[in-house]
């Protein structure tokens, strides 16, 4: 049963080093809990990014609370947590209104609102875990400032906000969104020049790699067996109904399988090839210029940012606020991502591209010019104080929403993948709900009880659910969302897709 050949859609060798990997957990990096892989388990988790880490954490915590043992094996194709979670912007930014009208007209106002409240809950979910487990991941809660540079884009966002506020005033008030029509006032608040309109709302940032690896360590302290450099290559059914997870090092028999492989999902489940496309993106780290250090004017940057140059073309930025449990000390690197204007026109550079061993064309020069162009008073060096530049592979789903749930054709196989570049505000809620569903499956010898399934369906925004219709859909809106599709006149669906893409 064991396949020897390695499927192509897996992390490449010699990937670029991101800022987050400068403090690697070297013990965990290539860890193998046992020399041989276990051949029997209750659950196999495939993937060790933030989704896999959070799934393992919840599964172990729930088992502990119920006084039950749980034999979990986590497989990682390459180094532990070395993919998107180690290469992202660290920005946990809920989208509070953008795209609301398009979603409401397609799916109804309640569903459109649920998509937004679901993301708004993420900050509290991160904070609860970070506090409970005392995880040092430099989590910081602040406000996101969206700076709009185009009048039509600003007008559309303003209408989205007004429509949501009229339909769900309590949620909008709870979400604490503030709108700024006065460009001068917004420039004073943000220190960013040139915007025509702005909005701010609660958001946060953290060191995603440190959070994920800390959660993996907690799961290992509960007995999880971690196997790095061990790709899961094939899934089949054993005669007794359990699942056989094939790897180049042997097979594992398991009652349940949790698939958190994001961009690389088709390497294990080929039916996801048309559904989750690897999309290459880029980010960098920047040392603050003297003008933006404590004690200077304008001084340290306080907020996180979305620079909205137009639909589908957004840069995002987080200013780290120091290290460790005592905030304000040490490193204050600025993480900046996006630069899509440099490479979107060249589709092969980003679409279905897993080569995060090379920089995105033009991105470095773009990042080097960025701070000086946008931040009032910036006095950095000739290279814009840019340190690391890296690329990473995002898992874009063909309808731009994550796939979360039990596989319609494979009972006991649970998927949490396809975060479309916007995983941070979605992964805590998705993994919390999915781990409860998986727990319900593990607890029964029959099918998952109706009440457990109903609780899962109610917890997640409906469009996230992994339905048969989505599994069989031929729709692919990714290129349209990036402004590179065949559509010449954006219809409503394209606008919706672009609004989704513009979330970061
Ligand atoms: C440049 C960049 C910037 C980003 N910025 C942000 C941001 O600021 N905010 C935000 O919300 N999101 C951002 N994202 C997206 C975010 O990083 C992801 O949504 C999130 O990290 C996904 O986590 P994950 O665990 O699902 O996937 P991953 O972290 O990619 O983890 C999947 C893991 O599965 C492993 N794997 C894959 N196939 C197999 C297999 N067959 N067998 C075993 N293991 C396998 C992979 O090696 C990987 O370790 C960004 C992404 C990139 C690349």
From TrEMBL:
What InterPro entries would the database entry show?
FAD-dep_OxRdtase (IPR006076), FAD/NAD-bd_sf (IPR036188)
Domain FAD dependent oxidoreductase stretches: 42-435
Residue ranges crossing the lipid bilayer per the database entry: none
- An example Gene Ontology cellular component term from the record? cytoplasm
- What PANTHER family is this protein classified in? FAD DEPENDENT OXIDOREDUCTASE DOMAIN-CONTAINING PROTEIN-RELATED, SARCOSINE DEHYDROGENASE-RELATED
- Name it: FAD dependent oxidoreductase domain-containing protein
């Amino acid at each position: 049963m064991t396949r020897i050949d390695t499927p192509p859609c897996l992390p490449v060798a010699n990937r670029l080093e991101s800022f987050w990997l400068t403090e690697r957990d070297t013990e965990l990096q290539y860890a193998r809990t046992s020399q041989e892989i276990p051949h029997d388990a209750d659950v196999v988790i495939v993937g060790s990014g933030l989704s896999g880490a959070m799934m393992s954490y919840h599964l172990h915590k729930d088992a502990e609370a119920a006084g039950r043992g749980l034999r979990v094996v986590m497989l990682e194709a390459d180094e532990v947590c070395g993919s998107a979670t180690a290469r992202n912007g660290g920005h946990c930014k809920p989208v509070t209104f953008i795209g609301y009208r398009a979603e409401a007209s397609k799916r109804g106002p309640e569903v459109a609102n649920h998509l937004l409240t679901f993301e708004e809950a993420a900050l509290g979910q991160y904070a609860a875990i970070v506090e409970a487990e005392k995880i040092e991941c430099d989590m910081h809660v602040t406000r996101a400032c969206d700076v709009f540079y185009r009048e039509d884009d600003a007008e559309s966002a303003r209408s989205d906000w007004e429509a949501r506020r009229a339909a769900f005033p309590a949620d909008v008030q709870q979400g604490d969104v503030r709108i700024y029509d006065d460009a001068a006032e917004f420039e004073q608040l943000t220190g960013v020049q040139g915007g025509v309109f702005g909005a701010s709302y609660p958001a946060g940032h953290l060191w995603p790699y440190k959070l994920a690896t800390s959660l993996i360590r907690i799961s290992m302290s509960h007995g999880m067996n971690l196997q790095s450099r061990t790709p899961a290559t094939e899934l089949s059914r054993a005669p007794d109904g359990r699942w056989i997870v094939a790897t180049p090092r042997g097979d594992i028999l398991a009652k349940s399988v949790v698939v958190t492989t994001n961009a690389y999902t088709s390497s294990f489940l080929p039916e996801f090839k048309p559904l989750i496309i690897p999309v290459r993106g880029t980010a960098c780290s920047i040392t603050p210029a003297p003008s933006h250090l404590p004690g200077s004017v304008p001084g340290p940057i306080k907020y996180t940012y979305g620079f909205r140059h137009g639909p589908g073309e957004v840069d995002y930025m987080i200013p780290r606020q120091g290290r460790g449990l005592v905030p304000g000390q040490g490193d204050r690197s600025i993480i900046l991502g996006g630069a899509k204007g440099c490479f979107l026109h060249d589709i092969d550079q980003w679409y279905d591209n897993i080569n995060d061993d090379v920089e995105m064309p033009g991105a470095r020069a773009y990042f080097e010019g960025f701070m000086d162009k946008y931040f009032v008073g910036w006095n950095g060096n000739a290279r814009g104080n840019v340190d690391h530049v890296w690329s990473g592979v995002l898992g874009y789903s063909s309808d731009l929403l994550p796939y979360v749930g039990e596989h319609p054709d494979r009972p006991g196989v649970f998927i949490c993948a396809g975060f479309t570049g916007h995983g941070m505000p979605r992964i805590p809620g998705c993994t919390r709900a999915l781990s409860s569903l998986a727990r319900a499956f593990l607890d029964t010898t029959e099918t998952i009880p109706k009440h457990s399934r109903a609780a899962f369906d109610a917890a997640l925004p409906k469009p996230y659910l992994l339905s048969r219709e989505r599994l069989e859909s031929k729709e692919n809106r990714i290129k349209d969302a990036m402004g590179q599709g065949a559509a010449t006149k954006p219809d409503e669906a394209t606008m919706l897709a672009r609004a989704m893409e513009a979330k970061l």
